[in-house]
Structures are given as structure tokens and as C-alpha cells.
Predict the structure.
Amino acid sequence: MSKALEYQRRTGFPKEHDYFWRQYAFPQEIRTYDLPEIALPSWEPSVPSVASDTFLSALCASLYGLMGTTAIRDGPSGRTIYEKEHYAVPSSGGLHPCSLFLGLNIDGRQGIYYYHQHRHVLQKVQEGDFAVPLEEATFRRGLCRERPVVLFLTALFPRTVLKYGFRSYRYLNHDVGHLLGNLRFASEQLGYRYRILQQFDDRSMAGLLGLERRREEVFAVVPLESPIPVVAQGGAFHATVHPDSYNDFDALVRKNFPNYPYPEIALIKEAVDQDRLHDPFTRETATITKAEEGKIDFPAALRKRKSATSFVVGETISKETFFAILATLRREATDACGGMVSLFLLVHGVEGLDRGLYEYELSSRKLSLIRRGDFRDLGRSLAYGQNLGGGGACCVIWTAPLAEAVRACGDRAIRYAYQESGMLGQQLYLSCAHNGVGISGIGAYLDGELLRFLGLPEGHAVLYLMGIGRSAPDDVRYRERELLKEGRWVEEQEIVEKGYANFAP
């Protein structure tokens, strides 16, 4: 058995698994660099239009569209819900392990930069021309040559391991996929083209960015193929002195997870690192979307985007809204392995559609009923009792023939599969925000039970679940979290149905 398939098997949840419900995120890691910074223009009051802005303004809009801070929401009594900001992309458990580095090949600004999303600045990591080592790391294919901007998407292992342990590698790739999913709409807004690279030498790429591979890896590289308009003037360079506020995640990991690094994660990291360049492989070509399909107000959707934490049972959505959400989905072409992800839906409450299990073909936009029935309770059970799996209008199930992909692309195919499900999932997130419908990713599910229910043969994998429905009010979930901290756990839907005021201390 390949190492990728072995990892998938070993990280499937059994029914009796004690899921990580009650662990919370630690503060974000703060990086410090001694080189000068670039202060980016403000994105307020809206995402800038490329037609009227300088290079830095356009770049600022692109960064904001990928992983900007979009809102700070207040909860009951004026307190901030979850005491954190909201971002342009979701993340498993609200952990946000991903970071964004940029390679700028512009006169006067050549070098590698780190995007500090909270302070909205570019911190210079290294100065000078990086073209030669980047060309070597991408196997001398010329895909990054003479590109004015190259994006590097990384993920920090310890941050996700603190909560999700051995299953973390799945979620890291989801989060990278979410960032890549935003590229489509950001590029349409700003008028540039891009190419997603997933084949590169991991060790060389980490060395280029100065990463410690035990803690952090590069998961995707994106050269912008059509330059963002470059104008001579722009933001000023200035030096900033940072306080010593580095969070020692290694110490936190050792304290909470003495068995880290998990053998499962070491297994898959070794496997994907050994694979080298292969011919692009796809089971289905990139989806071509008609002009009138899949259009959303991207800046507005970014500001509305958030993960629903519970759905109101019994609330339905219209068939028109349902199909408008699905019409946004489009496969993205990469240099590696794509077109492998399939989409199933457990429809619980869509007006005009029978309840049951459906399959949706992205290329033909065809929705087919496979099995009629009320699967709301089953949806909750398969998602570890979460209301998100059975309490909404539908539950989305992303799958892939992982064994077939591994035969074609090697063990690195597991990275491609989870990133593709994240890309498509992010498109659903923004489409739901645009259409006023709640959505949330679901990373905790019973792998084996789902495969048996779907009737998929051996070698297939369930990659991701997502719930879609009418969101419960924020104050309900906020009160639920307070009860959880107090050790007074109450089932989500009980709070939704009765109102959190009835659970006051």
C-alpha cells in the first residue's frame, strides 16, 4: 500500500473516537524580521479597483482578497465573538495555520516578503534576485521566469496539530485550498491571470523562504502570469522595531501532545517529499463557466463570509438559490493532478427537491438523485453528531478516487486531492455568502461509514464535508461556548430551539 493511502486509512475516525471538541486555539504566531518593510495602502472602504490604483494598491487588494482581515464581530454585551477577527478564508477550528510569502521582481523591490495580515504590511525576508533558486526548485520549467509577483502559500504544522493531532495534514491542505479558491475571484476582480503550481522540490522551496521544515512547509506556489499594473510611485519603505512576542508553539505542542510528531504525519511528509515531477493528470478538465453563471460580488462576499456554527432546523432554501450556489463551482487547472474530486449532496430541505442523496456533475451541471430518503439523522451521525451535518438544507460530501490518483501521480496526490476539495469548498463559501445562505466546513466525520453509505469502491476517499443552511443567530453560539467553558455542555440544537436566554446562569 502506498504511504498516502496508508495515511488516509490510519487517520480515519472510528465510531468510538474521542474527537477534539474542547480544545481551543492559541494566539497567532508573530514573526519578526530585521529588514525594512513596505507599508501597504488601506483597503477601506472597499477592495480597490485595478483601474485607478497604483501597483501597491492593486497588490494590496489581491492580498486582502486572499487572506485579509474582513471583520471583528461583536457578541452579546458588546464582547467579540470567539475573541478573534474574521478573515477572507475559513480555517479548521479557527486556527488559521497558513501564511503568505511573496516574491517581488520589481525594480527597487526585488526580494522575498512575508505578508503580515494583522498589521497589513510586507516584511522583507531577504533581498535580491531569487529567480535562479526558484527556477531550480520548480524543476527548470520556466513557469516562474520573469513573473513580477510569485505567491508562496505555507502552513505551520504545530498550530493545527495542537487541536487535531494526526488528522492535521488533511486540514492543512483544506486551508491552503481555501486560499487558492479565492484566487479565482480576486483575479476576475483585478484583471490578472495566475497558474497554480503544486509540483516543486519541498526542501529547496523551504530553503528559499528560510523555513524550518519540521514546523512549516510550502504547499503551493502561484506565479501571476499577467502582471498587476506596475506604477513607479507606491508605498514608502520604513523600518519597524517589533516587540519580542514570538509564541513558542513547539513548547505548547510538547506540553499538550507528548507524542508529537505523530508517526502518521511523519509518514505522509516523507512520502510527498520523495515524489518528483510527473506529467499532469486529470480525470476531468477544468470547468468553463458561462459569462452569466457563477458571478458574485467578490468584495461584498468577502465581508459577509463566515462559518455558520449551527443551523436552524426546519428552515429551507429555494431551489433557485440552491442551483445558483452550485453554478459558481468551477474546477481549477494546476500543473499536477486535478479534476478528481466528485460531489455528493445529502439534500434535507431544498424546496422543490425530494430529500435524499444526489450526485452533482460539475462539467455538465447535472444533479442526479441516487437514493430517496430522509437522511437528516444520518447526516448528524456521520458528522459526529454535529447539527451542521443534518440540521441544514443540505450536506455536501467531497470524494476522490485516491488510489487511482496515487497510481498516476505518486503519494503527493493526497496533497492535490485535499487542496482541490478546499478550492471548490471556498467557492461554495463565497457563493453562499453572496446568496445570503449559511455554510460551514466539517472536518470531523466517519470516513468508513460514509464510504459504505455512498457505495464507493475501495480506494476512494472522503475528503471534506460542508453543511449549507440557514444560520442560527450568533448570540446562540456565543452562549453555547460560554456554557462549554463552564463545563455545562448542552447540545447545539437544544440551545437553538429554546434560545440562549433560557440557559442563563
Observations:
- The chain has a mean pLDDT of 79.
- DSSP finds 17 helices and 17 strands in the chain.
